Amino acid sequence: MEYELNDILIAFGLTLFAGLSTGIGSAIAFFAKHTNTKFLSVALGFSAGVMIYVSFVEILSKARESLVEAAGFTAGSWITVGSFFGGIAIIALIDKLIPSAENPHEIKLLEEADQKPRQDKRLMRMGAFTALAIAIHNFPEGLATFTAALTDPSLGIAIAVAIAIHNIPEGIAVSVPIVYATGNKKKAFTLSFLSGLAEPVGALVGYLILMPFLTDLTFGILFAGVAGIMVFISIDELLPAAREYGEHHLSIYGLIGGMAVMAVSLLLFI
Length: 270
Fold this sequence. Notes:
Elements: H1 5-19, H2 22-31, H3 37-71, H4 73-97, H5 110-113, H6 121-151, H7 153-182, H8 185-195, H9 198-210, H10 216-245, H11 248-268
């Protein structure tokens, strides 16, 4: 498969946008005084809806088409399923290797950062580890966004927006403990911003390593794996975080809304 330079640049641009949205979360922590939990709950549910719908309806079906073309109907179908669950296994392993105390999906509220700095080394360490944990999480997300955008820019835009929404509270999760420990909002913003750079780095590694070998077979395996990664992120991270930020029904309304918007946007490009 060969791609034009313009397609590659668009894919990198979308991945950069998605990754650096952790900086938006950090900026919110910088300027805002209170967490709008209802808005975050709906937004995270919306993001999960977009990612789940697009994974099953679009990404997995495109992966299967490529794999059936490359390996035949039966073998291609089996490889599709294996790659999908392989993607889930990879992101689950990454999640398992990160200690729960430093997990980036621990809910953090802006009100916590508004208190007097405690000069607490444990809190500072927690913020730094959270930034590292988010960077590790964002690496496969960057690869997912880049691959999708390279194949179909309109699909890439939808995924980039969904991942950007889910990166905002991650930026807050980095900023709050650092601000609370040191009172240094600039340091909190910088660490949060840098953690988001892992997504374009993931895209760059994918481009340099995978692009020379991107046949129908490798593309199908990668795309099915991407679908698995996105479904796992939605179910394991986004929906639980959405429920903790707000009422149960708000996250579900957001989820359905995200699916509906994604369904309509896909139909518009038929």
